[in-house]
Amino acid sequence: MVFLYRAAIVALVTFAFALVGFGLGDLLPADYVTASKGMIGSVVGLDATLLALVLGLLIWTAHGQFMGQQAELQTIGRAIVLLDLALAGYGPEAAAGRREIHQILKRARARLWIDDPKGRRMVAVGDLPAEVLPMRAVFTALRPVNDDQRQHLAAARDHFSTIVDTQLTMIRSLVDPIPNLLLTVVVGWSCVLFFGYGLGSPANTLTIVMAALGALSVGSAAFLILELSDPYVGVFRLPRTGFDGVLGALALGDEITAETERRSGAG
37-90 and 241-266 helices cross at what angle (nearest 10)? Predict the structure, then answer.
């Protein structure tokens, strides 16, 4: 909801500047405003071009962030499954590593999807290296005795590195994806633009309604930029069902493996 509030503020401020323009246009002599329309039109045209280009670029960038996070989630999910298969192929000696996979998934889920209604994200990149140590300890403790186990261990190391590297990339991209200063500059351009619109137009019901619709359009663009730049908060959030499904599949796989081992031991 915090993004909706910020977008509403952008729309209200933009509309307020249009009203200021309407009011100033009524206060100034008509001849004075008419004589200045050339300059007013030039500045309005410049600001309109800048605003259209930058808003379009920011929406495209935010959408790229959204799609990038989605692709990286798929990369993590695939690497998690392959890591579990590699450890399962290694043998029962790697059971501790398979248990650690569950913890890796749970920590990643808690790190990405936040439940704060204000949308405040505390990204702690420094916590990730410490979380790597348990799995590295598992790898160090394993002593492969044949080529098959060596291949599975090497594959497990590669998949685990993919998981860690992908998480680091995702976390870094979530730290201030759209700088506040940049958004402030864009809002300033929209205020100047709508001030010019109001200054060069007579104040009547139609022009005020159109100014309100234009301000709403700017606010909705800001909303899209903010929402898409953090895919784990707000309306356009990526679903958690993928992570939950992987957790469920791993738990089911562990149960099947344990049952198979019990039957083998009984036999």
Answer: 0
H or E element, residue 236:
none
Please spell the DSSP secondary structure of 119-182, one letter per residue: ------TTHHHHHHHHHHHHHHH----SHHHHHHHHHHHHHHHHHHHHHHHHHHHHSSSS-HHH
Compute the distance between CA of residue 95 and CA of residue 84 in angstroms, rounded to an integer: 10
> How would you class 189 by CB atoms within 10 Å of its CB: exposed for 0-12, middle for 13-18, buried for 19 or more?
buried
For the segment 212-223, what is each residue's pLDDT rounded down to a tens digit? 999 999 999 999
Q: What is the pTM of this model?
A: 0.80
How many whole angstroms separate alpha carbon 251 and alpha carbon 259? 12
pLDDT at 264: 52
pLDDT in tens, 113-131: 876 655 555 555 556 666 7
